[in-house]
Amino acid sequence: MTDDTFEIAGRKFSSRLIIGTGKYKDYAENAAAAEASGAEIVTVAVRRVNLTDRDKPMLVDYVSPEKYTYLPNTAGCFTAEDAIRTLRLAREAGGWDLVKLEVLSDQKTLYPDMAETLRAAELLIKEGFQVMVYCTDDPVYARKLEEAGCCAIMPLGAPIGSGLGIQNPVNIRLIVEQAKVPVLVDAGVGTASDAAIAMELGCDGVLLNTAIAEAKDPIRMARAMKHAVIAGREAYLAGRMGRKKYADPSSPLAGLI
Ligand SMILES: CC(=O)[C@@H](O)[C@H](O)COP(=O)(O)O
User: Which residues are 1-deoxy-D-xylulose 5-phosphate-binding (predicted)?
Assistant: First the structure.
C-alpha cells in the first residue's frame, strides 16, 4: 500500500481505526484488543475510567499513553456544562486537548443533543481544545460544527452500542462530500462489513467500541476491524465499478469456437 496517512488537527496517523476503552472484561483484554486492532488512538470516557486513583487498576498501566494517543470523551454528559467540566478535568489530568465531544439527549437513544453539542463545541474551541465531535448524521449540523471549528466530524452510524450498522448511508455520503475536515463514522458499527461500508462511503476513519468489546472473541474482532477499515479504504480509493442493470459476461463473447 502507498502511504495513506491522514491528519487530525495537524497530527498524522496511519491507522484509520479509533477504538474505545469500555465494556471489556478487564484492562488487559482492552490492551490486547488495541494491539490487535492496529489503532493509534483510543478514546477514554473520562467520567468512567480511572485516570487518577493510583490505588485502583489504571488504564494507563495497560494501554500506554506513550504508545497511543488518548482521546478523552464526554460519555455520560447531557449538558454543555457537564461536557466542558469533564474535558477541563481531562486536560488537567493528562494535558490532553485533542478531545471527543459528545453531549447526549436521553438515556434511551443516547442520541446527541445537537443544539447543546454545538454550544459546547463553540465554548471548548474558545478555550483552546481541538474538538472531534460526535453528532447525528445531519449534514446541516455537520456543516455548522465544522464552521464552528471542530477538527473532525463524527456522525453516528446507528445508536451507540446497538451494532445496527450504518442506517443512513446517503447522509453519511453528503457529510463526507461537503466536509473539509476528516469525517469518521462513530457508533453503531456491529461487525467488520459495517466498518468497510463506512470507508467505502469515503469516510476518513471509523470509531467503534462495542463491536469489539462484546464480540465472542474480542481480539479476533479487533483484527477483523483493522482489516475491514483497510479494505474499505482501498476499495474507496480504487473506485467502485458501475452498477449495471443486466449481466455482462466476464470473458468476451466474440470469436467463440
Ligand atoms: C467509545 C465511545 O466513544 C462510544 O460512545 C462510541 O460512540 C462508540 O459506540 P459503539 O460502542 O456503538 O461503537
Answer: 161, 187-188, 209-210
Q: Which amino acid belongs to residue 118?
A: L
Residues 219 and 25 sit within 8 Å (Cβ to Cβ): no
Helices (H) and strands (E) in the chain, counts: 8, 10
Distance 252 CA to ligand 1 centre (A): 48
Residue 69 · residue 41 · CB < 8 Å: yes
Q: Is the pLDDT of residue 257 over 80?
A: no
| 43 Cβ closer than 6 Å to some ligand 1 atom | yes
Q: How far is the CA of 95 from the centre of ligand 1 (A)?
A: 23
Task: State the CB neighbour count (10 A cutoff) for residue 160.
Answer: 21
Is any ligand 1 atom within 6 A of the Cβ of residue 22?
A: yes
Question: Which of the residues are catalytic?
Answer: 100
Mean pLDDT of 201-207: 98
Mean pLDDT value of segment 136-142: 98
Per DSSP (E only), the strands in 85-183 are 98-101, 130-135, 152-155
pLDDT 10s digits, 29-48: 999 999 999 999 999 999 88
**CA–centroid distance, residue 43 to ligand 1 (Å):** 9
- 75 Cβ inside 6 Å of ligand 1: yes
What is the Cα–Cα distance from 193 to 231, expressed in whole angstroms?
10
